[in-house]
Each structure stands twice: as structure tokens, then as C-alpha cells.
Amino acid sequence: AKAEGRNAICFFDPAMQAVVTANAALTSELRQGLRNQDFVLHYQPQVGREGGMVGVEALVRWQHPQHGLVAPDSFITQAEDSGLILPLGQWVLETACTQLAAWAGRAETEKFSIAINVSVRQFRHPEFVEMVMKAVEQAGISAHHLKLELTESLLAKDMDVTIAKMGILKNAGVTLSIDDFGIGYSALSYLKYLPLDQLKIDRSFVKDVLTDPNDAAIARTIIGLAQSLGLGVMAEGVETEAQRDFLARHGCHCYQGYLFSKPLPIEELEVFIQRLPQT
Ligand code: C2E
Ligand code: CA
Ligand code: CA
Ligand code: CA
User: Fold this and answer.
1) What spacing in Å lies between the alpha carbon of 180 and ligand 3's midpoint?
2) ipTM for this model
3) Which of 76, 124, 147, 164 could cross-link to 175 by cystine, CB 3.0-4.6 Å?
4) Which conformational region is residue 64 in: left (phi greater than 0), alpha (psi within -120 to 50 degrees), or beta?
5) Where does the EAL domain lie (predicted)?
6) How far apart are CA 249 and CA 208, in angstroms?
């Protein structure tokens, strides 16, 4: 090692150093933010065939004391790399379950679900299943109302453990969805082994579904795949009626996107729900 050390070329890249420093600063700010409970959940409605709300997706935001409301894309990766995704994810889980408890019991929420995003690192925690069940129990809700959005990257390794964990969650009544389906690298053959309920079409395929024949083909293929496997399919990032109509024509009847609503703070979601046509 000593010889190696002597001969090794040492690069000092000031830009890299700046990145390392910035990451460390972000990590300590995130830790502080967790201590101060500076995170909030916004809820984006998910709409079904008849236009009624079938659920919401909980999306985390950071209410930063200096920068205002910060979008998750600017901190989730760092939270994952630093391990802070564990306490953050736990907070999201407990907060979403508590929120669900406040909605439960209303007639129109019987089939309603809250979807939460689960990072790979969180899912791989040896006690993940216990933590989910505990959050459900403590909130006093039925697990049937909880949906977990998992990503394909989960399937890169330890398939046996992953399948076993998913099985326990599924048996407990939790709904399992694969998020951003189609942008991962995994082979399709794994799908038949997983106790899944839903595939979620990534927004990147929905965006140009009317103008890009490749995106249209991918969207149609995902819908067809879901149908042949007996899974539900939800499209995200639906912004126009034309996109919605295309998806509906090809058999996708669950949507989420700005066409219906952007993610809303809880008070605004309550107003949104009250304004829905009564069924
Ligand atoms: P995602 O799970 O793919 O969530 C969908 C993203 O698309 C959300 O961005 C949402 O606000 C946005 N979106 C929804 N409808 C539309 C639309 O019609 N048009 C456009 N252009 N965008 C739309 P957001 O809230 O910024 O979240 C970004 C990502 O951060 C999420 O992507 C998810 O991967 C991650 N994330 C959010 N909350 C959590 C969380 O609690 N835990 C974890 N692990 N990740 C989270
Ligand atoms: Ca998601
Ligand atoms: Ca995602
Ligand atoms: Ca997505």
C-alpha cells in the first residue's frame, strides 16, 4: 500500500472538493431540519375511471427556514446517501398514516388509498416491514388503505429477501406499486415473481405520448403488460385531456397529474375533496 501510495497520482479537483463540502453542509442542514420538524407532506389526488378520487400520493417538501419550500429532487438523493432517508422516511410513513386516520371512517374514503414513496435503502432496512406495520397499528388504520411505491432498482439484488418482504406486506393488506415503471434497467421476467398490485407509468412517457411514437408504444406496452399480469396501472404526469383520452383508449383508467390537481397542502386537499362532484 505504501508503494502504491508513493506512485499513485493524486488528483486534487477543487470542483470535487466543493461538491463534498456542499454535500456535507446539506447533510447537516437536513439533520437540523429533521430535528426542527421542517418537513411537510403535500398530497396529489389520483383519479379513477369516472373522474372520482381513488387516492392521493404523499410527496415530501422541506420547509426550509431560509430557502422556503424545497422540492424533494434537491434533497432525497443526499438523504439517501447520508442515511437520513431512514428517519425522514419513517416520518413520512407515520405522518401519512396519521393523516389517513383522520380521513378514515368517511364513506367516500372506503376505497381510498394513500401512496407513499419508499427508497431502496429504507426498504432494505431489516426492520422495514415491522416499521410499516407499527405505523399502521399506531395510527389505527387498515393496511388496505396504504400503498407503497417501490422502484425497480430494488430488484437489482437480494431478490429473495425483497420478494419475501413484499409478500409479508401484501398479506397484511398493503398495496404494492412499482413507481416510474419502464425507466429502470431490470428484465421484465422478474415481474411474475413479485406480489404486486400496480404498475405506475412514469411521467417521462406520458409527456409526449401524443407526439412521440416511441413513448406511445412504451405507454401502450406497459398498460398491456399490466393487464396481462392482472395488475392495475396508473399514469403519472397527466397534464392534458388529450393525454388522458389516449391513455383511457388504451386501457389505463387511473391518473395523476396537473390536469386534475398539483400536489396540495393538507388544507387545500380538504377543499379539493369537498368540491368534487358527489357520487
Ligand atoms: P415521483 O414519485 O415520480 O412523483 C411524481 C412527481 O411528479 C412529483 O414531483 C409530482 O409533483 C410531479 N408531478 C405530478 N403531476 C405532474 C404533472 O402533471 N406534470 C409535471 N411536470 N409534474 C408532475 P415531486 O413532488 O417534486 O417529487 C419528485 C420525486 O421525489 C418523486 O418522484 C419521488 O421519487 C421523490 N419523493 C417525493 N416524496 C418522497 C418521499 O416521501 N420519500 C422518497 N423516498 N422519495 C420521495
Ligand atoms: Ca411516486
Ligand atoms: Ca420516483
Ligand atoms: Ca415518476
Assistant:
1) 6
2) 0.97
3) 147
4) beta
5) 23-277
6) 16
- Residue 76, ligand 1, Cβ within 6 A: yes
Cell of 185: 434497467
Nearest ligand, CA of residue 70? 1
User: Does any ligand 1 atom lie closer than 6 A to the CB of residue 179?
Assistant: yes
Rg of the chain over all Cα atoms, to the nearest angstrom: 21
Is 55 touching ligand 1 by the criterion CB < 6 Å?
no
Report whether residue 258 contacts ligand 1, using a CB cutoff of 6 Å: yes
The size of the chain, in residues, is 279
Which of 132, 126, 229 minimizes the C-alpha distance to 172? 132
User: How do the residues of the chain divide into helix, strand and coil, expressed in percent and rounded to 5?
Assistant: 50, 20, 30
Strands (E), 29-84: 39-47, 53-64, 68-70
- CA proximity to 45, closest of 274, 245, 250, 232: 274
Nine-digit cell at 244? 388522458
pLDDT tens profile 137-185: 999 999 999 999 999 999 888 999 999 999 999 999 999 999 999 887 6
| Paired residues of 24 in beta bridges | none
Separation between Cα atoms, residue 87 and residue 131, nearest integer Å: 11
- Please, are residues 183 and 202 in contact by the beta-carbon 8 Å criterion? yes
